[in-house]
Amino acid sequence: MSCSYADGLSNYENKGVLGSPEKFDSEEKVESKCNLLIEWIKNSKHIVVHTGAGISTAAGIPDFRGPNGVWTLEKQGKKPNISISFNEAIPTKTHMALKHLIEKNYVHYIISQNIDGLHLRSGIPRNCIAELHGNMFTSQCNVCESQFVRTEATSTVGKKSLNEDCKRSAVLRGRSCRGKLHDTILDWEDSLPEFDLEMSDYHSSLADLNICLGTTLQIVPSGNLPLRCKKYGGKVVVVNLQPTKHDKKADLIINTYVDAVLAKIMKKLGLEIPEYHQTIDPTKNRELIEWNISKKDVIDMKARYEKIVKDYKKRKSEEKLIKSQHKIPKNEDWMKKNEIGKKGLIFKAEKPEDEDDDDNEFIE
Ligand SMILES: [Zn+2]
Q1: Residues carrying an active site annotation
Q2: What positions does the domain Deacetylase sirtuin-type occupy (predicted)?
Q3: Cα of 243 to ligand 1 centre, how many Å?
Q4: CATH of domain 5-292
Q5: What element of type H or E holds 103?
Q6: What pLDDT, in 10s, does the model give residues 54-71?
Q7: Greatest CA span in the chain, whole angstroms?
Q8: Which of 61, 113, 241, 297 is deepest in the core (most CB within 10 A)?
């Protein structure tokens, strides 16, 4: 199948803002913004990267809403000129840099809307990635729900049957499953994969830095996930050529190519971007490989997430208490509470001199 997988999806009207002009920061601006980003990366404990179609355009795969995107052209009655198939495309500099940043413990999780399988093919382990919209190089059993890596992109989209038996018996070397394998690509309004979404939610909330690469953040719920960390004090960074839905809430926006930003980050961290090679690509491995998120990982992440929610609530209630203790009464109330006021010896109620004074008399 060529990269125009969009042909296999149902018709859908609301595809968001299409074809917005691309913007480019000056070289100097990119440099200074990247310096700030590096500082944040070095000072963050949990970094999550959210990726969209913009990180795969350098591999020859068209995006959706760019000036030459699939949906932008569709609206003009045109089709993208694609010269590459999913099987031929290879991971870009950004994919390979992200894989290395995970190995070096700078990046802790990737949340991707991409179905091209290039993260998988860069060698990223399953416990470090959520694929919210599916993956052309995986299939899933309709009975046991196990996912398997494929050696070729699926021929269907929209979770259709591939007419292949579940491979679970081969993996477990035990009882066989009677299920059939299906592709994992979501059609419009399909439910997102449960564990992938749950892990994305926890990681995005826990992150003190959510970095969005090559996405206009228009698809929900994927596009809203990076904002989860704001409540808990985390930062959001956007690297994209077009404006995104959440630019106003971003702490830093870099308008340039993602590959250029990743190249600068790697250089400043003293790291090389590894070359793609078939030996690291699970789709080139003849052995059967499962591609499942472990339930234990979900439970562990849930516990970490619940702790930050608990800490947040505790902090908020403490702040509320302190605020109420320091609340300055309205003039009238203060007058009533003061003998002097009653005696009419003063004509205005002055605020207490020290607002940090723990005088409970002023609690309303
Ligand atoms: Zn099965």
Answers
A1: 133
A2: 27-272
A3: 42
A4: 3.40.50.1220
A5: helix 93-103
A6: 999 999 998 888 888 888
A7: 93
A8: 61
